[in-house]
């Protein structure tokens, strides 16, 4: 949408406030989808939820692509938002449940690489063909070059994962289902141990029953720590303002002195390319050096980048871009480094972490609640950013995000234990006490150094 809004505004003759609503409301709409997705996946299964999400999104994509006015566009945005909410919850949960422990982070992060590749391709199409149809076709039609756009992949997703891959953890009562997902004897032993450890839900109970009581009303100390860590991570990921950098990058470049639409679009495309490249860092290292190191490095770099961007924009706002032309390059570079640092940790790891720390019974609805908080925060920021920077200047807005990023780093350091190398069933031992998880990680490192084969 960052590039498409330039032409949508011209086509439909809409105001900045309407652009704010258009950009931000999909995140508000996805709240409904994510809130329903957890219960749906517990009730109907992960596979059916994936198919359901793709069906909803396909309908929304068609409505948006062929909208003839702003009202119809917003209807399509609402329908697509429901699909987004469902998909953002079910994709990481499914990946985490079927992946081996040693490559769980890699496989969950791979989803985001594919998303960013599609975004880059769509941004490039809009930039190369800046006209009314260039923002419509990426939403619902196939591209002649062989890549595909929003509506087409959702049709392919209708097939869904194979039936036997519903997810052994979700169907832990069915030994045969568990062994279908398991390809090696080690995984079979893990799943056999899982079957012995997980209390079977009586067939008379409704799937997902009692979750909110165990999650929010009367949580145990480890579960309370998990809820704070997972939901806090999802909230702070968006509160740091990265979506404002990405979605409103053309306006940031305009404030920095770039007035040409083509140059703003090219700079916006570069943001998407940068984001995609640095997600690869997370994907290939998340299972090697761990979630915690990447999160702290990512957040620290983002904080520095946002401070640089805020300072540069403040100086340009006060003295003009002509007097400090070199600052224009620094501001553009700061947007790239902000996106790069975010993408090498905070972006994809928030989804990896949230999908792996909840206990089995609470996982789907806990992750759904995390997605809802993430989308609500993003929607509020996107719908208010233009008004915010008009009230306190664009530099002031990014100083605000800088302060939030500092708080985020402290939160990560104090409350988020390292989960690398842990099976999904062993996560709870890390939570409940700060000193407890520090001791646990120390013992795990000793075990790895003394007997690497058993530790693996």
Automatic annotation (TrEMBL):
Pfam families: Sugar_tr (PF00083)
Main location class: membrane
Alphabetically ordered keywords of this record: Membrane, Transmembrane, Transmembrane helix, Transport
TM annotation in the entry: 48-67, 73-95, 265-286, 293-314, 326-353, 373-392, 398-417
Domain Major facilitator superfamily (MFS) profile: 1-420
Mode of membrane association: Multi-pass membrane protein
Subcellular location: Membrane
Top-rank taxon: Eukaryota
PANTHER family found in the cross-reference section: PROTON MYO-INOSITOL COTRANSPORTER, SUGAR TRANSPORTER
Family: Belongs to the major facilitator superfamily. Phosphate:H(+) symporter (TC 2.A.1.9) family. Belongs to the major facilitator superfamily. Sugar transporter (TC 2.A.1.1) family.
Protein name: Major facilitator superfamily (MFS) profile domain-containing protein
Organism this protein belongs to: Rehmannia glutinosa (Chinese foxglove)
